[in-house]
Amino acid sequence: MLTAVLTALFLAAPPPAVDITPAQVDAYVADYQERTGLPGVAVAITRGSKVVHATGYGRTASGTPLTADTPMAVASVSKSFTSLAVMQLVEKGTIRLDQPVRGYLPEFTMADPRAARITVRQLLNQTSGMADTTFREKSLPQPDSLQGAVARLKDARLATAPGTAFSYHNTNYQVAARLVEVVSGEPFAAYLKTHVFTPLGMSHSSTIDTERDMPDSARGHLTVLGQAVAVPEPPGFGNGSGGVISTANDMARWLIAQRSGIVSPASTAELRTPSRQNDTYALGWSIGRTPRGNPVIGHSGELFTSTAEQLLMPESGYGIAVMANTGMAFGDSSALLDGLVAMIEGGTPEPPSDPYLVTDLVFLLLTLVTVALAARGLARSRRWAARRTGWGRLWVLPLLAPLALCAAAAPVFRFLARGRDAMWIQVFYLYPTFMLWLVTAAAAGVVVTAVRLSR
Questions:
Q1: Label partner for 208 (CA 20 to 30 A): which of 59, 239, 304, 360?
Q2: Chain segment 182-228, per-residue pLDDT in tens
């Protein structure tokens, strides 16, 4: 029943809606950039089979103008491409969604015997039982190929039995992409080019393995005190789960293809059907509603230095894609998408704000105070040593507390994020001014402690 409803909803003719013009989009994005300092963003808006607007704004991290044909990272929006590739093989009869993955991919082995029951569908709707809590995909040594991404699972265990719980875990889609490689006999990048990008006219799109393969135009920024700072993406493997690089023009073609039918209506509905374990996540697509209650189908994408969004609005026929070159901590793609949706629905976008500005100021001030206190401690180190002998010198130990917290930053993040994994440098990217203060405090504590004890 749900499949039939989704099919009818998605393929129905779009009813009348507010017409959004390129001039309105340009004015909104320009105002957003002026208020936030966002360096660059690409936007694609379609309606039915027509492109309403597709263009780039601002500059890339290397300083070149950002255009409608500038390749940018779409991050986890890539999951929609991987699920489509799997569905194409389902339509060919070479894969069945509800059959165990291992029947098609014998190399997929884990230390947990329950892994033999994981189905293709469970990979795509993220109910396989794999999770960050039992397999730290980001902080473990990173693979350099999809085959390596699957091979490193051999010692991993499941967090839950397959099909019993939802857990968003990138490795699901890396296994799915490797499945496409093995079943089709083509490297995943070649498969997407031959069967997805080229048929849709997405001539500037590709998929990559790691951040080392990222083109300069797709690199991004951190924002500190409202100022964007170009930085490299931290190490990570993303093919299948977050490796697609695309442009505004190409994403417009992708959005239109979701209505014209790159796969059959039944397969399209299958891709949009959520699991019983999570009624908002389907096969590489999220299901939801706008603040005004209109149904939408989309997926977000987040890297540490860039973000992306895609959204389909079945009732009005609109499709939107946004790619911004600032990281997940700032949510510029999501904010811009929300504003564009509000305009389409006849509303007014909320004015943007910088929720981290005050926080950045506080931690930068703390960093300066810490440096001043460290200098004072060094200047008085001889006096301190003269006053303390024997066990009294243990009073120096509290100065090492920031060092301990600095070393434990990644485990603390995992605890606060309910098991989501991150390596130390990625925590720095998420909270740059806090981590700057913490590293400064750790270094100051070590230096002052060493000098005091040496006196």
A1: 59
A2: 999 999 999 999 999 999 999 999 999 999 999 999 999 999 888 89
pTM of structure:
0.91
Give the number of other CB atoms < 10 A from CB of residue 164: 14
Whether 437 is in a domain gets the answer: yes
| Structural domain harbouring 36 | 2-85+179-344
Whether 308 and 444 share a structural domain: no
Rg of the chain over CA atoms, in angstroms? Answer: 25
User: Is 373 a member of any domain?
Assistant: yes
Q: Are residues 372 and 308 in the same domain?
A: no
The answer as to whether 427 is a domain residue is yes
226 & 338 share domain: yes
CATH number at residue 79: 3.40.710.10
122, part of any domain? no
Domain tally for the chain?
A: 2
